[in-house]
Q: What sequence folds into this?
């Protein structure tokens, strides 16, 4: 029998989340963001559930090739654009749209030999300070692109730094509008947080929205609102089983370093899950977990292949019983990945993307 840990990708949850975001998007079209192997869910697996989107946004030309091989004939957008000259040849062959965020990418386009001009998204740095042209240089970049026979339609985009909290999107919207209002082309502004927190605003949703994390059932502003508030369903469940049970007396410790010391007699379950499976090593005692659908907590340090859980609330639990590390238990109870991530001092994005290759994955 194989080791019992496994991940389940919920196809219906992905479809539900896409429909929920479609509802929030108004008339805007949706880029389903599937970078990082669809946030750890598997690109091919997610594609089947997300093909109702208007396009897919990703980072890597090889991922774009995968989607074309799967049969997608609609728009594909490279969110970081091209990295070297030969990437443009594959963009032509695969009919890819791509972001232009620095002068070197315009230089590469000017040297590209093609009979079919390419669709580009010109990106403004409106305050995120990662990618994009400074607002004062934006029109000049547009003018250069517009003069190139290699370029077809130019769309305009930016990315919000504070859509999940304060100060919000207003300042960046104003910067973007000030330096692009007289330029033609479709606009793409909103990520998951902006879409859910600031719609229905035509200024935010614009022509294209770019939801990522919300597609996978994680709240984009956890700590303010949970996933249930946004009517999102977990698309990934990480489940395992108890492989041992220990009885502790008051004063006994658990695991490496004795980080947890029992203050009373108690039963402790040992779970086949550790940091080599992608569970966060730094998750402290008290991180939530479900045993047979009942909420309890982790105890002590997470080790490479195992972690320990408190069985005080599930006194009948024994070897072979189900443990849900995040997502949905087989019986339907839900432990949001954001709660686990917050306890470990990280975000749901990281847990999804960190799922280890050794963990078997199935769909349901």
A:
């Amino acid at each position: 029998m194989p080791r019992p840990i496994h991940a389940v990708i919920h196809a219906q949850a992905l479809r539900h989340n896409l429909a929920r975001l479609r509802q929030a998007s108004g008339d805007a079209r949706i880029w389903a963001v599937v970078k990082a192997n669809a946030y750890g869910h598997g690109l091919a697996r997610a594609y089947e559930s997300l093909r109702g989107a208007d396009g897919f946004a990703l980072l890597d030309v090889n991922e774009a090739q995968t989607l074309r091989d799967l049969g997608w004939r609609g728009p594909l957008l490279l969110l970081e654009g091209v990295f070297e000259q030969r990437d443009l040849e594959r963009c032509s062959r695969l009919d890819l749209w791509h972001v232009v965020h620095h002068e070197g990418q315009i230089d590469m386009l000017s040297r590209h030999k093609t009979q079919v001009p390419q669709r580009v998204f010109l990106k403004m740095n409106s305050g995120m300070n990662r990618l994009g042209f400074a607002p004062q240089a934006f029109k000049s970049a547009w003018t250069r692109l517009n003069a190139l026979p290699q370029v077809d339609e130019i769309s305009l985009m930016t990315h919000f730094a504070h859509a999940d909290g304060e100060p919000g999107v207003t300042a960046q919207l104003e910067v973007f509008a000030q330096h692009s209002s007289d330029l033609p082309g479709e606009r793409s502004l909103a990520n998951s947080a902006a879409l859910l927190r600031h719609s229905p605003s035509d200024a935010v949703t614009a022509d294209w929205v770019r939801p990522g994390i919300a597609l996978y059932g994680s709240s984009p502003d956890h700590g303010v609102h949970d996933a249930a508030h946004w009517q999102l369903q977990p698309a990934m469940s990480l489940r395992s089983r108890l492989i041992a049970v220990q009885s502790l007396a008051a004063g006994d410790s658990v695991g490496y370093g004795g980080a947890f010391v029992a203050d009373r007699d108690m039963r402790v379950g040992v779970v086949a899950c550790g940091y080599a499976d992608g569970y966060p090593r730094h998750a402290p005692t008290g991180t939530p977990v479900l045993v047979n659908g009942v909420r309890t907590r982790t105890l002590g340090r997470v080790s490479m292949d195992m972690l320990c859980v408190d069985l005080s609330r599930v006194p009948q639990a024994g070897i072979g019983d189900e443990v849900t590390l995040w997502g949905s238990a087989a019986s339907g109870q839900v432990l949001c990945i954001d709660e686990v991530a917050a306890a470990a001092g990280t975000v749901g994005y990281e847990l999804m993307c960190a799922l280890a290759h050794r963990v078997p994955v199935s769909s349901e």
Summary: Residues 236-363 form a domain with the Lyase, Ornithine Decarboxylase; Chain A, domain 1 fold (CATH 2.40.37.10). The chain has two domains: 11-216, 236-363. DSSP finds twelve helices and 19 strands in the chain. The mean pLDDT is 97.
